[in-house]
Amino acid sequence: MTATADHPGAARSEAGASGSVSPALALWLIMAGAVAVMALAVIKAPHPVQFNLPLVAHMSGLLAGYGVTVMMGLMSRAPGLERGVGADRLSRWHGLGGRAIFVLMLIHGVAATVAWSMVQRIPLRTATLDVLRMPGLVAATVGTLLFIGIGYVSSRNVRRRMKYESWHLMHLLTYVAIALSFAHELAGPDLAGMPVVQVAWSLLYTLSFGLVLRYRVLAPLTQMWRHRLRVDHIVHEGAGAVSIILRGRHLDELNAESGQFFRWRFLVGPLWLSSHPFSLSAPPHPQFLRITVKAVGDGTRLIHAVKPGTRVLGAGPYGAMTNERREGRGVLLIGGGVGITPMRALFETLPVHGRELTLLYRASSVEEILFRDELEHIARQRGAQLIFLTGSASDPRNAMSAQNLLAMVPDLATRDVYMCASPRLSSAVTLAVRQAGVPRRQLHHEDFSF
């Protein structure tokens, strides 16, 4: 069936429509791989199979090694995953998977050492020294220590105290840790004597690293050469935010949509060292793109000072918070603070008519409202509903409760809800809309606080 302008899933480019991987399919593929790895551990175990320390050591080691390839694939920024699964869900899976891998590595190391001590009937200290002499174990131990360090700095309390740029550079050591551990995986007892499996394991790692190289390195460089993005000019929006207008070539080839984001790297001074995820704050145009940045840290403050003519590497577009996800005819957009940026672009372009389209903007004060004139103009032009919710969070009238939301949008349960806000506000909205009867599949949210 051909999509019409007001049909859910319309306004999507042909390039973006193909190759998306749904969350359900991605999870099934991951689980199928995990089952295959566990079966490999059982096949490798002495028969009759017994659930003992050697089996635990083999299975946890293989699962940890397999999990590493899954994590690389999830964060490779492959378009099919980014568009189909969504950046925020991929990030959550990555965080959960990383913690699981960390636990599996510790189980593997402890179980293997204790099992060797029991089999050889030697003290645990002597067994530890023996194990370290096995193929690739010294490098794998260093890799494990790196994983521990990366896991520590990635914990929520520590990460909040670190600059984003410092955390990002530390996180890149993950690739070093993976490389150090690979030799032990290939030559160690888990895969020894199984050349076909060793080749398949090597190909799995090659595929994972290939995805990372293709979409995190080569694709952005290719886009930079093709589109030649530069800062055209900067507009001060107030409330500590600026809009950056970027001009380039062939921007229509990006197939970007309202609601999506890019990872931007400004190629000047220390800014080139890290990329920042910013949503488009206006619908994409064949000749220019607009992003809006609020100064919340050292990196964003430096971005405010970039000069016209600065070259920009924009990797993307990413994100699944587009019209494609819409299932109902009505839409409620909720933006909190600078989270209004993707909502503003969607407010202008979603193919929803009149009062069936509502934008709710939560800000701490009237002075904190961004794009007020633009939003009011769009609301008048489209006959849409625009609600500003300002003031103290302790004011009951500002509470993101099911009762308040239903008072503003009585048919809320039949609508799709798109939101972009702080983690606290997002949690409150999620609870409220679910209590109001909005099905989970009609709630669309991407959080870039990671």
From TrEMBL:
InterPro entries: FAD-bd_FR_type, Fe3_Rdtase_TM_dom, FNR_nucleotide-bd, MRET, OxRdtase_FAD/NAD-bd, Riboflavin_synthase-like_b-brl. Its main location: membrane. Residues 224-324 form the FAD-binding FR-type domain. Its cofactor is FAD. It is found in: Membrane. Keywords: 2Fe-2S, FAD, Flavoprotein, Iron, Iron-sulfur, Membrane, Metal-binding, Oxidoreductase, Transmembrane, Transmembrane helix. It comes from the Bacteria. It holds the Pfam family NAD_binding_1. The keyword Flavoprotein applies. It is a multi-pass membrane protein. The chain crosses the membrane at residues 21-43, 55-75, 96-116, 136-155, 167-187, 199-218. PANTHER family: 1,2-PHENYLACETYL-COA EPOXIDASE, SUBUNIT E, NADH OXIDOREDUCTASE HCR. This is Ferric reductase. The lineage of its organism: Bacteria, Bacillati, Actinomycetota, Actinomycetes, Micrococcales.
